[in-house]
From TrEMBL, chain A:
UniProt KW keywords: Membrane, Transmembrane, Transmembrane helix
Organism from which the protein derives: freshwater metagenome
Record NCBIfam families: NDH_I_M
Residue ranges of domain NADH:quinone oxidoreductase/Mrp antiporter transmembrane in the record: 128-419
Protein name, UniProt field: Unannotated protein
Localisation: Membrane
GO terms assigned for molecular function: NADH dehydrogenase (ubiquinone) activity; NADH dehydrogenase activity; ubiquinone binding
InterPro entries in the record: NADH_Q_OxRdtase_chainM/4, NADH_UbQ_OxRdtase, ND/Mrp_TM
Bilayer-crossing regions: 74-98, 110-128, 134-154, 166-189, 213-232, 244-263, 275-297, 304-324, 336-355, 376-406, 412-433, 454-473
Bilayer disposition of the protein: Multi-pass membrane protein
Entry keyword annotation includes Transmembrane helix: yes
Automatic annotation (TrEMBL), chain B:
GO biological process, one term: ATP synthesis coupled electron transport
Protein name: Unannotated protein
Gene Ontology CC, one term: membrane
Keywords, comma-separated and alphabetical: Membrane, Transmembrane, Transmembrane helix
TM stretches of this protein: 6-25, 32-53, 89-109, 121-139, 145-163, 175-194, 220-240, 252-272, 284-306, 318-338, 344-364, 376-397, 417-436, 496-515, 544-565, 650-667
Gene Ontology molecular function terms on file: NADH dehydrogenase (ubiquinone) activity; NADH dehydrogenase activity
Residue ranges of domain NADH-Ubiquinone oxidoreductase (complex I) chain 5 N-terminal in the record: 74-122
Residue ranges of domain NADH:quinone oxidoreductase/Mrp antiporter transmembrane in the record: 138-431
Topological category with respect to the lipid bilayer: Multi-pass membrane protein
InterPro entries: NADHpl_OxRdtase_5_subgr, ND/Mrp_TM, NU5C-like, Proton_antipo_N
Pfam families referenced in this protein's UniProt entry, alphabetically: Proton_antipo_M (PF00361), Proton_antipo_N (PF00662)
Keyword ATP-binding annotated: no
Amino acid sequence: MTIHLSIVLWLPLAFGVLALLVPRSLARWVSLLGTLLTLGYAIALVADYDTAAGGLQYVTDRTWIAELGIHYKLAVTGLNVVLLLTTAILFTAAALWAALRDEPSERAGLYALLMGLAQSGVLGAFLAQDLALFVVFFDLMLVPFYFLTLIWGMDPDKRGAAVLKLFIYTLVGSLLMLVGAIATGVLAADGGSVSFVLSDLQQHLLSNGSQQWIFLVFALAFLIKMPAFPFHGWMPDGYSQMPIAPLAVFTAILSKVAAYGFLQVAIPLFPKAAVQYQELILIFALASVLYGSVMAFTATRLRLILGYSSVAQLGFIVLGIFALNERGADGALLQSVNHALVAAPMIFVVALLAARAGGSEDLRDMGGIAKRAPAFAALFLILSFALLAMPGSANFIGELFILIGLFQAKVAMAFIAAVGVALAAVYALRLYIRSMHNRVGPQVDSREISLREALVLVPMVLVVIALSLYPQFALGRVEQAVKQSLSAATATAGKETP
Amino acid sequence: MSTQTAAWLVLAMPLAGTLIIALGGRILTPRMAGWIGTSAIAAAFAFAVVTLVKLQGLGEEERHVASSLWDLANAGGLRVSLGIYVDPLSVLMILVVTGVSALIHLYSVGYMSSDEGYTRFFAYLNFFVFSMLLLVLAGNLILLIVGWAFVGAASYMLISYWYRRTTATAAGIKAFVINVIGDIGLVLGTFFIVRQMGVVDFGPLFEGAHSEFAKNDPSLVAGMILILVGAFAKSAQVPLHTWLPDAMEGPTPVSSLIHAATMVTAGVYLIARLHPLFEWAPTAATVGAIVGALTLLIAGTIGLTVTDLKRVIAYSTMSQIGLMIMGVCAAAYVGGLFHLMTHAFFKALLFMAAGSVISAMAGQQSLDRMRGLRKAMPFTFGCFIAGGLALSAFPLMSGFFSKDALLFEVGQRGGGWIVFYVIGYIGSVMTVLYTWRMLYRAFWGDPCPEAVELEGGHLHHAHEHTNPANGEVEDTEVGFPGAEHHIAERTWQMKVAMSALAVLSVLAGLIYLPFGITDTFEKFLEPTFADSIVTHPANDGLEVFGVILTSVLAIGLIAVAYRIWAVGEGRATAWQQRLPLLHRLFVNKWYFDELLDLLFVRPIAWFGRFSRDSFERVVIDGALVGGTSGIVRAGSSAVRALQTGLLRGYAGLVMVGLAAVLLYFLIRAA
């Protein structure tokens, strides 16, 4: 079977354009069809991908800008294969949500176009095997979210400021990364012909000094994007204003591009710096875990609880990556998939809760929602348990591998990170209990999940359960690629500590 | 059918029950859900018996069978399979768990029948049994942790079963979080072992431990102590016990099944399961024995002063499990597990009887309100007596033989372990006293109004439904207890379940009598503990002494308790006044709740408030986003510009620019 990555990459955008052209009532369904086709393509790709062979597969490589040595090079690897599928699943869920709930009520065509562009951007960032191309997609995927928030954001008075914050923050990150990328290409060429292809750059690693500053630049861009403590300043406002479906994919999958960037770009290209700054990054990650968790159980607005919980969960992922050993990084990639699959339906749950609490998204206005909604309560509870990484969930296997990797690298840090695990139990259950249980709130109108809502939520919960029964599905596919991604760094570390 | 097939079917039954009840919620009538749940567990018990027969059919050397379905994870040189490990120890556990669970399901069919959440109750209860079976059958440490966490989750869901009661949801989250702390202990402990050995499967783990670790290797000791933290949290040992008394917020069958008979004994099972590792790290084993002994004493003293009927039994459970933990840590495996089994019978029975009493009191649980219920509820009274006699180790009752066996094995080790032997008997003194304090106060004396009403043939009903913990008014819809109360005297399902347990409480001792009269139980467990490196030298004198001492203590102290609480009006108060400080310490439960609050809850809450109110605002939003918010604040023009669409234009420009560049080079490339 031949798989053309350009097709899977641009399919969502093509259907987005199509959605703009068809009658308005059809736009959402065209968009859904596009995500479904992409999902089908992604499933075929995962089924066809040869895990045993590993390496780059289905490579598309054309010279894009010859003078600058930039290639339009796409490939599926062990690192991105499961993330591609996850992306396709989540955008399908978001499109389904929009189609079934007739959201947004205005300018549905434009909305579909922007979501299509976002999906193509994310897929491109995952597929890119050229540093410049990666940077382009990394920036491109953010642009639609500015518009989505600006046009359909929650509060017309506040969304502008939120977008500005998000924009400036991520712009700083993007510019830094652009500078870093250009510097990498130029310095690596060392007067010869410039190439931004990742495999070429790995052949010509930079000198120690250059690696250091460029690594920090990339790390900063990724940490902002995640977001990690203390670079999460854009998150509270951004999360509060973004419309539900875009927020679901944003929190679920865009943050993972940054985590993926560490393994795909930063560590293989700057291995010495990665080893050198290991502890620094670990400390930021550890702070994210603790700070995010504590904030998550102090916040009362549901989106912020989930936002801060993301800060903490991304902290765990970074801990796993920067354990700089296989177990940790395997766990980090599994956890990227897990968190994406849980965070997105959780955002939808927020909308369902708000609809039952008189429109408020504040925990203090909730309580007793489970009373007439046992099925909804069950779905929500399963998601909450997965979010807190209860043993038995795939999230647990992810955290287990992350922590065991960290334990082997830095014992003390593993113990501190374990505190975050306990705090996760507190904020996840607090969220559940204070919305679903206790006395029925004054504005609460408890009603069962509707068929339309269930059509989105139930398949997502089933995916979470399925992965929990067989987390090896993801682990088995990433193992080889993770080993390669870390090889240069572990070799460096090995030399330093004989 | 092979041994492993039978064992997998044991696991499958309650899982199927859970799924059928949960997914068939709308189609099934509540009654049907109750009976499906009960039958699923009865079927699991039947398969457990088949497993037993099949296992006994194997040679003694082969009585440990591992079987796995698929790999959950296999990466980075660490393999975790979905596998089970069947040996005499796990078979004993599945028999006890499924047997007692089946009876408690039957009891619940009657006891819970007026509750609005009846169907949900049985789905949870079946899920709990599945989790508990997963815990005891798990073939590796990771799957054990999964079962371990699942029982914690089931316990949480059932404690918070009446979920509109804020007291119940608070108790639920407390139990869950303390258990998560235990889970983390288990996970971190596992890391110490995995780092060295690279495997998590029990077979290779037990065989390799002695060659991979030196005896009392610091990292093995650290790992085992962390694993003990898990055991302490689950089995309510100090200082991680504070969730158990609160867990009594759950319906009484839940207290009976989870918080007395099965889940809370998981710590004992864990230590017995991992005995090759604990014996190789004697320091950790000693730590476990000390904590068990402390719990035995502390819980006993609190049990003597607490006035809530269910909480007396809860503290008694804590104390008895302390005894068992002390036992298995001292390598008294056979006695410890024997006590685990008999305790499951008589403690489940005591809770069931307490449930019946509480129903007769229309939900009231305070011993201060109860008096003279003996004549009003003769069957319940009989069961209470049977359970009470077994708990206080009255001669020839099951508890007599099991406690005796446990303490004898501890004493056999001699040396410093004699301290634990003595503590065991001090604990016994308190056990007899609090048991009979409870019995005499509830059943002796002049009947209270509720008892009189019941004697007249009418079951008391409160005018208004209230939460006994805080007096809040409740309705009887879903999320609160149902309208009707059910007592054993009038509900045949309750009567059958309690009768079966009463018989077991009295007779179960027969399978393991002292002086080698019967040794069925010991012989059965032998293959599991054949690799034990601890010897138990014969000591006939000690054995005779133990039997006599246990008998004298039980009979003598029941008489003393009679003088204090049945006939001696005011004697208890006199003692309280004589020892005011001690009494205050006991009544306030040794201030453990306050201590944990001060050490952990408050600092974290303070940190949370500080982060939210100060740090987030000043540092994150002020300093780090200073540029951004500065722009927003200073340039009100910028804000105005936003509304006119400047930002939109700006972002649009970026996109158009990007698209143009993209398009240009795409065309060029082509």
